[in-house]
User: What shape does this take?
Amino acid sequence: MPESVLRRGGRLVWRSLRLHPWAHGAGIMGANVFALAVVGFTVVIGRITDEVIVPGLDGDGVSRQSLLGAVAVVVAVGVIRAVSIMVRRWFNMLATVSTQRTWRRAVTDRFLDAPLAFHQRRSAGRLLAHADADVEVATAMLKPLAFALSVIVLAVASLVSLLMVHVLFAVVAVVMFPTLTLLNRRFTRMVEAPAAEGQEAVGVLSGIAHESLDGVLVVKTLGREDAEVERFSAAARVLRDHRLTVGGLRARYAPLYYSLPQLGIIVVLLAGVWLVDGGSVTIGDVVRAMSLFSILTLPMEILGYLFQEMPRSVVAMDRIDGVIAEPTEPQSELGLEAGSSRRTDEIRRPVVVEFEAVGFAHVDGIEVLANLDLRLEPGESVALVGATGSGKSTLVSLLAGLVPPTSGEVRVDGRATTTLGPEGVSGSVATVLQETFLFADTVRANLTLGHDVGDGELAAALAAAAASGFVAELDEGLDTVLGERGVTLSGGQRQRLAIARALLRRPSVLVLDDATSAVDPVIEAGILAVLRRPFDGDNQVDRPTLLVVAHRLATIRLADRVLFLDGGRIAASGTHDELLELDAYAALAHAYELASGDLTAGGQAGGYG
Amino acid sequence: MSDADPRRIEGVSALSVLRRGIAASPELRVGMPQTVLMAMSVAGGKLLIPLLIQAVMDLSITSDGVHMGRAVAMCLGATVLVVGSIQLGKLTYFRLVRTAEDVLLGLRVRTFEHLHRLSLAEHTASKKGVLTARVTSDVETLTQFAQWGAIAWIIDSVQIVTVLVIMAVYSWQLTIVVLVFHLPLVPILRWMQSRQLTAYEELRTRVSDTLGVVSESVHGVEVVRAYGHREPMRRRVRGAIEAQFSQQMVAARYFSLILPLSDVFGVSAIAAVVGAGVWWGDAWGVSSGELVAFVFLCNLLIAPISELGEVLDQTQTALAGWWKILDVLDTEVDLVDPVAPVALPVGALAVRMEAVEFRYRTGGRVLNGIDMEVVAGASVAVVGETGSGKTTFARLLARLADPTGGRVLVSGVDLRDASSEDRRRCIRMVPQDGFLFDASIAANIAYGRVGATDDEVTAAVEALGLTVWVEGLSDGIQTRVGERGEGLSVGERQLVALARAQLADPGLLVLDEATSAVDPETETTLERAMERLAAGRTTVSVAHRLSTSERSDLVLVFDDGLIVESGPHDELVQKGGIYSGLYDSWLGGTRQAL
Assistant: This one.
């Protein structure tokens, strides 16, 4: 509905105006000065024609002063015009870019502060689009704003100038200005649909190209090259047809749009000659009117551009608002305190972990866990086993306090995770997740996460995680930068770093969610052995409670106790051999054994240190 | 060619790109002279106004009174010409667009086709994204250029030249004045343009930095929360946003300066024209009409110069993109089909490699001399660490690339002598990544052989024991697998790929096993399917499963581009070599009494 688009567009502009009033104000002022200077210039040219050019060449000549005066005025008005363009562009840009900054900050803050459920509901790609593309598109209509608003001033000033000369010229102008705008609007509306279809066709084509080239190996082995080329060609032809439609429309419109002012000038000229004949106007007046007509096209275009961008900007703004309006996580005082100081220097206390009648259902209603009870004693090593999709990772998230249970309570050291919040829980529980995430930063920064850690402790953690070897072999050791612009580590190496990172938190509970899947089994066994020893070599400290989610029999066998997750609850608990009595468990174990025979997993050149 | 700077190409002039581009796209040459003529008339249309003004002022409004008749005649004549130029403009524009789109279509399709014909050596993982970009974003950049920049170049250049010519006809002296005031613009604009380009490049870097940091805050949200890392992360994100903001304002400097600068020069030119024209006009033979016309002509000069200044940026990017596309088209296709193909026998094929070597175009020897022989119908397991050459070995067997030394023989026939149809019929490779097309399972399986019937598809599924699994899916065999098969798990994708191979019924099956963690439930089905598939044909598996190498007739152990051990599983374990070591490490992990 064009009506509501206009209103929403207006609201968008108003919000930006309130955020950065001075920048917008200066830009708009510059634009208005420009409009006046433009009209002023035509007046100057007209007067010069009458007072300098005609007398100078056809008449008795002019004095040097008059000539120099005329030249000076032309330059002066011209400079004012140029300076006003500069002011308009600079400040308009400032206002636009400042607005972008404000909205980007709001969106990214929301990413950091919204509860995890928010992130789970949306793909990472879409969130990035909000912070980047949507902000760009939403502010796109601010770019021509100053200029577009000044078109009103331009129109009024032009009309006044023409009326001062002769009403006839004003009439021609009144016919011309709106016709141009209408032409512009009509074209934009007509070209919208085919242009959008063209964009879609580009997307389709891109998709085919990506899919086809991603699977180039398969295409070759299947001998499907010709079929793929045909598929691509067909889509490319569709694209070309859309583009030709758009081009055809533009071909019909553009020459007309740009030539209409010329026709206007001819009319003005003819009328002007007639009026000169009658003595009502001078030649200079006619020149003035013609000059005005020759600068008409651009401002009309800018206005059209504004209206073109408005619908897209408004839609993007809605998407941004959708993010900003999301509720933040309740910040618990306790949580903030306990988590921000990484850990105290005191000796780690062993803690108990309890799940009491815990249930968890996804937003779409699918229940993953129901009425789950478990208890981990301090210092235990427990393996969590369950079929794919049984809810193991959900259990881990609940334990880490990342999500609240839908029913029941999860307690760490007697305190509910919902009270502590993830920051509070992180004081006692360290999690190493399935997907290893490392920041694009140095190894050291990734391990310490900005906290103060002594080199000795850093070395001990790396040793326990069997990571000292490969880290030492990196070009810059601990100061090597990781990530796209730095070094890329193998899966096993990343996992070991993640384990070292977790250990540095001196946790009371250490949770490994399939965190060693890429690590060579021999190395893995070594790590687990170390973890089950007291952490701090010198002091006698109770070892952390260990919860390991694993798919390897070797790992499972290393645990004191195995919890079998089935049907959303802990179906059985005991040693591995005891649980083999259960058919369901035995089948799972057998499958694990088959899958485990991986001859080249790991193969880490770095070895274990 | 490095892709470090996507916008500039070292040491290549615009002219050479144009020359090469026109050579590669013959569509461009068709009707070129007509197009230029039309562009000239379009530009001519704009020039009518100053001419008309001059004529009217000099001939109609004279010292001996106003001649209305002449004015009317001239204005009517001008109107007709303007309307004519509008029509001509429509034709010109449409011609330009159609030519451009034809060229682009041709480029797109030919590049795509060429990419598929290139041997697999070109399609390494790192290059894949780059190559796809050629056919998508690079051509799109050219499109945008074709829609605006190219047309601007043609029409604007013509306009500038025509204006100068008319000016010179009126008064060469004044033309010199105009040139004097416009010429300094050229180096100044170019200087500012290059500074602006640098600023925009830096901006692009900062934009991608911001994206990178925000991406980390999103992808790593769990780690950020779980490790209490929120505030440091927030500081980093804000820092990136600030850096982007300040660079945007740096770029804004140039954006705000370039147009006013051109404007000032234009205005100074007008002022100088007025001053010189009035002062020396009589001596130079300049009439008042001509002088007024001159002022209007100056406006027609400044506009195209400014537009060309703004188009320069887009032009550079487009030229760079065009060059890279042309590079792709010029890359040699190394897999050539034989002139006189030798037929391959039906049934299981024997395989032999003689002193086979392989190195990539960019250096790096992968295979250092492979000799091996396998009888028809045998099953071979190929084992070795990543980078030992086993994957390349498998690809050479399927002739996805040609060896750079030695030869690969299949049942006595050199692979290079076999026709491509024969090859596809008799040799099948099931790759590691389980890539599927966005279609149903049945369709994906049917791709295995041209003209396969539904019955044959069902038969293949049954033969591998997959019927139960297929029927357990939401739409059975018609279940759509999604883009790249993402609707299925990794293991399930391999199941479909295996069924596809079963349908193809090759004499030589090359199987590159998936390494990623397979869900255990699918694992058993996969095991059985692979066993059944191997029956009755020669199978070479790049093995990642202990069970595979235990089961096979022959094990080949690769290390650093050579086969270091070969023999049946039991023999190699006894030997106590590399294979035995590998086997031991797994022994400890899995084979204790269940």
Observations:
- Chain B touches chain A through 164 residues (CB under 8 Å).
- Residues 25 and 107 of chain B are 7 Å apart (CA to CA).
- Confidence is low (pLDDT under 50) at residues 1-6, 589-594 of chain B.
- DSSP finds 19 helices and twelve strands in chain B.
